[in-house]
Amino acid sequence: MLAFAVTAAALPHLPDSDRQVLEKLPERAADPSILAMRQLRRQLSQDPLDLALALRLARRYFEEVGSEGDPRYIGHAQAALAPWWKLADPPVSVLVLRAVLRQFNHQFDAARADLQSAVRQQPDNGEAWSWLAAIAMVQARYTDAREACARAAAQASALIAVACGASVDAATGQALTAVSALNAALLRETRAGAAEQLWALTRLAETEERLGRLDAAEAAFKRALALGLNDGYLLAAYSDFLLDRQRPAEVLALLKGKERSDLLLLRLTLAAQASGAPNRANWEADLVARFTAASLRGDSLHQKEEARFALTQRGQALRALTLARDNFAVQREPADARVLLEAAIAAGQPAAAEPVRLWLAESGIESQVLRKLAAQLAAPLKAAR
Amino acid sequence: MRRACRAIAWLSLAWLVGAGFALPARAHKPSDSYLTLRVESGKIDGQWDIALRDLDHAIGLDADANGEITWGELRASHREIAAYALARLQVAGDDQPCALSAGEQLVDQHSDGAYTVLRFTVACARPPTVLRIGYRLFADTDPQHRGLLRLETVGASRSAIFSPEASQQSFALATPGRWAQFVAYARDGVWHIWIGYDHILFLLSLLLPAVGAWRARRWQAVASFREAFVDVLKIVSAFTLAHSITLSLATLGWVALPSRWVESAIAASVVLAALNNLLPLVQGRRWAVAFGFGLVHGFGFASVLADLGLTQSTLVLALVGFNLGVEAGQLAIVAAFLPLAFALRHGRFYRWGLLGAGSALIALLASAWLAERALDLRLF
Predict the structure, then answer these.
(1) CB contact under 8 A, A14 and B106
(2) B-contacting residues of A 11-30, CB under 8 Å?
């Protein structure tokens, strides 16, 4: 009976009964914070030009993106800012929020322009500086990132100020300095908020992992998880750590019920493959459906994940290489570099990973995994000579 | 095939989440709608899959605010959904606005949840050569929303993405040129006369006596080819004129006859024409018979032409093309028949074999058709 019902549900059909539930909304109306959000929206619809109200609602929507990773709220936030969205010179508060929403869609250059305009008008806008730092890190512009961190530090909490500078250090050949700074700050700033601690601990874990100090890395990951916040980035990073250590069963347990997120569904699929879990085919089919849906709408937000999927699950080295190369042109973080190196090795095209080699040389980033892959990539070249 | 695969994917997903869990985990996905337009012989049908979540955000579906959308709640909103959605979709054919009318609404699943499936028709004044589509669904509630269009024409499928930045897009429909359409209709006309045995046999029955006839129990063959030719010309012209008249009248919608009556009358005309060769009633003025029954055959042609699918803009073109095709096919048959018959007109074979036995066979066969068509039987 269930089989029949579900099969029927995959074609346009007429449901059997009025009581049949077709959709569960992510917003439970009974939730007071959702009620407040709807109330805000109603108020704004009566006065769409009320800037303060529009900003409050847009920020509220963006919080939902952060906690749930649901990109529909990006569009809702943008809709709230509609009267100011297309202005060349909107109020600073709109500039900052517009940049935040734009970077979510990987429009990094447009976001950067908004933020630079914001800090020109308000040099002490800490939020704008922190987003400038974040975007500079993604684009591997470390001098800019360092400056932005310094400017943000004046307005930010002590822990965030340290963590911001430390993540630049960690990417530029001063990983040990970064680790001590992070550890010291975490010890000192015991009253920092959970979200701030999580952010600092995640940076610490990643840096320790790149240094090859796996026990320390895992300890930091676990402390971050113990804060009890639902953070998709942290879950993905720790899952990757576990997958690299051949511990797929722990990934399956960690990400149970998190299939909604594309990032986490990829990790579940990889873990299922490694452990022979029965769900693999379903997860894989679901993931493919999502990649297809994204490409239908012309999205390229998940090129990194798609490259990794093509490489590890499908053995499509050339496709993975194209995706990874396109992705590295937009985002240049260690994970982006890694998938490009791996794809270049699998495809036997070392030249395709030239941008990564340059980035490794210029940044001086310490990463055992990346250095090893780069050496592996260079080996056949040398042998050929 | 693709649908089947999707069904299997859902099936296995349901197994995975267990029978107690009503809805499987849904992907986080930006908002998209899936709009399909099918253009076929001037008609346009649409299907629009719109996410319930997006509709709820825009117009509110969850009447009891319990966080669940039931079929009952959705059904109660069907009228509102159709009005809301279709007001945000403009279709124009060659710059003339087309009218959208909502049909039924079903439910389907996409990777991020349940969608309403709104079917609709697009009525344009004339079959368009360029389709302009204006799309602004959810432009005010979610500027990140995309309308994913699939435009299906005969033998081709195109896709396009609508966004607030690209809300107006035009598509040239690969309609064949007037000449190509004309040729296509003419070819259909030739084909129809070629496979339309009843028309051929009727004509042949009338033509068989053109090269000779029994007069007072004596076979009299025509003396000159010219004599035979003039007789054939009169018959064929009368038949052509007659069926052209009724074909036009029926195609233009001025006269309509029940097809069973028409088909039976055509069979009867063949019977009578063939019997006339065995027991001659009408000898000199067979062209008048050709004209009279030709009127009936024209209605038969008209129903074939109607089945080919006609649009107002191509009506005259189709009528002329098809008719000329019929004439061309008919002339080819006559051109093959006349010299042969003329050459054989003195022999016994023609007298007994073709005119006698041939006509008898034709009469027999056509009687069977008549019985079939009049009584709605299947004899063969």
Answers:
(1) yes
(2) 11-15, 17-30
Provide the token pair at B58.
């825009």
Chain A residue numbers touching B54 (CB-CB < 8 A) = 72
Give the residue carrying structure tokens 């590890």: A312
Q: Are strands B96-97 and B89-93 parallel, antiparallel or unpaired?
A: antiparallel
Burial class (CB in 10 A: 0-12, 13-18, 19+), A358: exposed
Segment holding A143, helix H or strand E: helix A142-153
Q: Is A378 on the interface with B (CB under 8 A)?
A: no
| Residues of chain B predicted below pLDDT 70 | 1-27, 155, 174-177, 216, 308-313, 378-380
In sequence order, which residues have a C-beta less than 8 Å from that of residue B347 and are 6 or more positions away?
none
Q: How confident is residue A66, by pLDDT bands cut at 50, 70 and 90?
A: low
Q: What is the C-alpha separation between B205 and B282, in angstroms, rounded?
A: 12
- Is B311 strand, coil or helix? coil
Does B23 contact A21 at a Cβ distance shorter than 8 Å? yes
Does residue B124 sit in helix, strand or coil? coil
**Which DSSP state fits B253?**
T
Q: Which residues of chain A does B25 touch, with a Cβ-Cβ cutoff of 8 Å?
A: 257, 259-260
**What's residue B15's pLDDT?**
25
Would you kindly state where each structural domain of chain A is located, as residue ranges? 158-229, 231-299, 305-385
Structure-token pair, residue B137:
């669904």
Question: Which residue on chain B is closest to A30 by alpha carbon?
Answer: B66
What pLDDT, on a 0 to 100 scale, did the predictor assign at position B380? 59
Tokens of A299: 């999205």
Task: Tell me what pLDDT residue A163 has.
Answer: 92
Tell me which chain B residues have a C-beta less than 8 angstroms from the C-beta of A279: 16
Find the closest chain A residue to B162 by CA distance. A297
Q: Both tokens of residue A125?
A: 């806008």
Instruction: Name the band, by pLDDT with cuts 50, 70 and 90, for residue A30.
Output: low
Q: Is residue A336 predicted with pLDDT exceeding 90?
A: yes
Judge whether A383 is closer than 8 Å to chain B, CB to CB: no
Interface A-B, measured as beta-carbon pairs within 8 A, has a size of: 180
Which overall architecture, per CATH, does domain A158-229 show?
Alpha Horseshoe (1.25)
Residues of B in contact with A13 (CB under 8 A): 106-108
